[in-house]
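Cross-check.
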Amino acid sequence: QDSSDDIEDVSLFDADDDVSRRSKKSKIRHPVASFFHLFFRVSAIVVYLLCELLTSSFIACMVTIILLLSCDFWAVKNVTGRLMVGLRWWNQVDDDGRSHWVFEARKVSTQGGKTSSEAESRIFWLGLITCPMIWVIFAFSALFSFKVKWLAVVVMGVVLQGANLYGYIRCKVGSRKNLTSMATNYLGKQFLRQTMATEDQAAS
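Predicted model, tokenized:
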């Protein structure tokens, strides 16, 4: 009865690669993906805030919000993450019933032609982090204001958008072991640079 999930890293995401940083541009290469990355999740929030003004039907509002949240979950998980930041994640169950998290990262091209732009990366992570926080605020608001009928809707928003946030954070940093090795490599690079700079100054 081991409840811990096995983690499989298809490829690591090197967030500190200097070559990839130099090759990144501020140009938005996938405007359609960037638009729909924010459209569904922002639309769900707007409908939640204005539904009582637009219609008196709670069922219509609930179905619309859940439909928007579902479209957002699928689009972010399968399309916008892959195009905008080169990341993808999914969970699969093997024949033994054990759950495996699979994380995939686009390998950085040596020619810099396949790297994602910094503008798209900002849009992706800003939308991915901000919207779940807003749904958490809605959940506390519905709970303290005793709006029980809305609680299921906001919990659905927290779960769906929180799942994508969790998946992409794990996809970016990998397991704890990988995160430790990334930090060690980064500190090693910084120490080497400082040593080289000190030697250059001493030589000059």
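Confidence is low (pLDDT under 50) at residues 7-24. Residues 21 and 79 are 23 Å apart (CA to CA). Passed to J.P. for a second look.
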